[in-house]
Design brief:
Blueprint: H1 2-23, E1 25-28, E2 35-38, E3 44-47, E4 49-54, E5 57-78, E6 84-89, E7 96-97, E8 102-107, H2 109-179, H3 185-252, E9 255-257, E10 262-267, E11 274-275, E12 288-303, E13 315-320, E14 327-339, E15 345-353, E16 364-381, E17 393-400, E18 403-414, E19 418-423, E20 431-433, E21 445-449, H4 451-460
Parallel strand pairs: 4-21
Antiparallel strand pairs: 1-2, 2-3, 4-20, 5-12, 5-16, 6-8, 6-11, 7-10, 8-9, 10-12, 12-15, 13-14, 13-16, 14-15, 16-19, 17-18, 18-19
Helix pairs in contact: 2-3
């Protein structure tokens, strides 16, 4: 369009120059208001400059179009945490899997044996607990019997003391009767023997009390020892259970499950292969790689100049090179809030639904992000500006009374193609597009509306 306009102008000038060579001269006087042709007969003729014009349009979007790469929303590299031989593998590359589905199983007989041994040790430990608790019950019963023996011994001691007192009184009466010559001395001796026997019985009863109390103390100590044995046996159960859990967990590592719904994108082993543990040194290739593909991440790096304007929720349009003609409306999901100090770029992620699975990990394309909208301001093509704008002020040519008039305008944001006009223009103004050096303030022009601008105006109506 621009070349056509310049061609038209210069064609007219060349034609006038030819006339000038025949009948006179032609030149452009910036002090005057039009191209002036001087003929050979002394007369002059005003030449009107043809121009393309556009009308200011409402609304402007600041856009940022950057390259974007597609990644799976989640990607997991599955390793074996225990060494073993691949027993079976239920999936292959491209298979869709469900969360929790068994993908592969390793053969680990050593761990299976350890689990069996752990279960036997646990049963043994629990039996010991039962045995220790039975011992506590037995000693407790003996303690109760000892306490009862103490009570019985104390009762016997009281009875013995009573008999001692009775035999002592009886001995005194016998002695008195013997003194009166009323009884034979033999009866006194018999009474004395019975008294001494009761005293010995009382001593024996008191000794029995001490013995029974000693038994109570001993059995109490045995109970404490038995209870400690129970606690120790309980601890052995816990240790045995922990060991069993450890081997059970390790045995569980021999089964590889899908962490989420997705697609198998990599396989490195076949049944019968020896698989090394991921805990071993050196690099290891994953057994499988599973990727979630119902939702994809579009990774975009935004340049420093656009960073202040990008926010989560901003509208975006994703175009993927491999899917020609397809455009995917989306929104920014998250931003890193940090620029790479080397590249001055900030990572931005867009979540893109992929229900059909046509979008694949590794694809690329371009992403257009709407950074800012100015719906209440006019905008014009950047090519309307005369010279360079500074401090938000520029100049454009506007047609007033068929003449080009230079007008100052206050500018807002621009998106590289169009610039917002904050002040200085009206909707009905005809702004000259791509003003050339042949224009000056006051030059008469003949306007033609730009096709692009005309089409936009029709679509707006």
């Amino acid at each position: 369009m621009k070349m056509f306009r310049y061609w038209s102008v210069w064609t007219g000038l060349i034609a006038l120059a030819v006339v000038g060579m025949v009948s006179g001269t032609i030149y452009f006087n910036k002090g005057q208001t039009a191209l002036v042709a001087h003929a050979g007969d002394g007369t002059t003729k005003t030449v009107i400059v043809p121009v393309k014009v556009v009308h200011p349009q409402k609304g402007l979007e600041r856009l940022s179009t950057q390259a974007g790469s597609i990644q799976a929303y989640e990607s997991v590299r599955l390793y074996a945490k225990v060494p073993g031989f691949m027993k079976k593998q239920n999936v292959d590359i491209g298979d869709r899997v469900k969360a929790g589905q068994v993908l592969a199983v390793l053969d680990v007989p050593e761990l299976e044996t350890q689990v069996k041994r752990g279960k036997a040790i646990l049963v043994q430990a629990r039996s010991r607990v039962i045995q220790m608790k039975a011992r506590v019950n037995s000693v407790t019963a003996e303690l109760d019997a000892s306490k009862a023996a103490v009570t019985q011994a104390e009762a016997t001691a009281k009875s013995s003391a009573a008999w001692v007192r009775f035999r002592e009184k009886q001995l005194l009466r016998m002695k008195e009767l013997f003194a009166l010559k009323s009884i034979d001395e033999r009866l006194v001796d018999e009474s004395k023997e019975r008294y001494e026997a009761s005293v010995e019985t009382e001593h024996s009863s008191k000794a029995a009390i001490l013995t029974s109390k000693a038994h109570v103390v001993a059995y109490a100590a045995k109970i404490e020892s038995a209870q400690a044995d129970v606690a120790f046996a309980d601890a052995e159960v816990d240790v045995s259970q922990a060991e069993l859990d450890k081997y059970t967990v390790q045995l569980g590592f021999a089964t590889i499950n899908a962490p989420f719904d997705g697609v198998v994108t990599h396989r490195s082993s076949f049944p019968g292969d020896f698989v090394r543990s991921a805990n071993e040194g050196g690099s290891h290739e994953p057994i499988l790689i599973v990727q979630r593909t119902d939702l994809m991440r579009v990774i975009v790096y935004i340049p420093d100049r656009d960073v202040p304007f990008v926010d989560p929720g901003d509208a975006a349009l994703v175009e993927i090179d491999a899917l020609t003609g397809k455009k995917f409306p989306a929104k920014i999901s998250r931003i890193s809030k940090s620029e790479d100090p080397q590249t001055r770029l900030m990572r931005v992620e867009i979540d893109l639904t992929n229900p059909t699975g046509r979008i694949c990990h590794g694809m690329y394309g371009k992403v257009t992000i709407v950074l800012d909208k100015q719906a209440d301001q006019f905008s014009i093509p950047c090519s309307c500006l005369v010279g360079k704008a500074g401090d938000g002020v520029g100049e454009v040519y506007v047609i007033r009374d068929t003449r080009a008039q230079l007008v100052k305008v206050h500018l807002g944001i621009d998106n590289g193609l169009r610039v917002a006009v904050v002040e200085g223009l009206r909707a009905e103004d005809e702004v000259i597009l791509q003003p050339g050096s042949e224009l000056s303030n006051g030059v008469r022009v003949t306007p033609t509306e730009s096709k692009d601008d005309s089409a936009k105006a029709k679509s707006a109506h």
